[in-house]
Amino acid sequence: MQDARDRRLEFRIPISPTPGFFSQIRMFDFALRRLGPPYSQARLLVCVGDDCDIAEVRSANDWSGDRVEWEAVPREVFAEFGMHGTADWRLARDGGDADVVILSDADTVLLRDIDPLLTGMPKDRPAIRGHMAHGPPPSVGGNLPASHTRDYWPALFKRFGAPWPERLFEYSLNEAGRFTRAPAYFNLGFVAFNPAGLAAVTPRIFDFQRKLMRSFTSNMRCQIAVSLIAYQQGVDIDVLPASYNAANDLGHLRYNQLSVEDIRVLHYLRTDEIDRSVIFRDDHIDDFLAAELINPANRALQALAKEYRCWRIQGEGDDGRVERGIPRQ
Fold first, then answer.
1. Which tens digit of pLDDT belongs to each residue from 23-33?
2. Does residue 169 have a pLDDT over 90?
3. What number of other Cβ atoms are within 10 A of residue 289's Cβ?
4. Fewer CB within 10 Å of terminal CB in the chain, N or C?
């Protein structure tokens, strides 16, 4: 089995060109680099939408040096697909020389290594790994059954010519048992591909989105597209535990029997205690550090922010890099 340290990694994050997103990328970069190899050597590709001026984006983020690549989503893609085009641009680019390409959201951070995923990722067949979404996608039109019913996914698979899978999975936040089991349908805050798995999606993503948009509407159509294309193309699909995409949601932690110590990737999408768009900005981070928080996942994020703040004060190292690693657990 290949050692995780030998794997070449690439993380891809979609954003709009705003100070809040930029501060989240800087925190993501810090959380990644502090883990040591292979994370400190990973490529971080940031896909910037909204018809941005990429030169201005790079200038606003001169801290990133050559370890972060800022790329503008093509204007024609953003014009046709909007923010969904920004999200899907991560899938439209090939995998380069990476062994594992991970789609992340800006509101995620690695708290620990993801070594078990890296060493277990197949090399001999197209593969994709992700954590199940909290619930079924909202879906309107197209004469489809309601998305919370057992008939929704079979109807969708039939419409798009995907073979019905043998294995079905629980949604990751189904405390009341409201939802039936479903095919693998991933939250895109953390989804991992090997090169062949990504290559199965890359040439198909935008044509598939056009077909989907003609059939029905959903603000989760990027997630739907990934699932259906993967099943269409016979990709090896499996579901990751909640530790790889742990929401700062007490219900999600409870339902998945997840302690803070278990979390590898934290997805701080809930805003009842924090404002994710400002907490890492230089003019807000001290307020975040002083806040009295109840949610243990938010407190873990606060502890990471304290380490980040200290690192910034100490000068970030001569070349702006995180110079030390932390032990694997």
1. 999 999 999 99
2. yes
3. 14
4. N
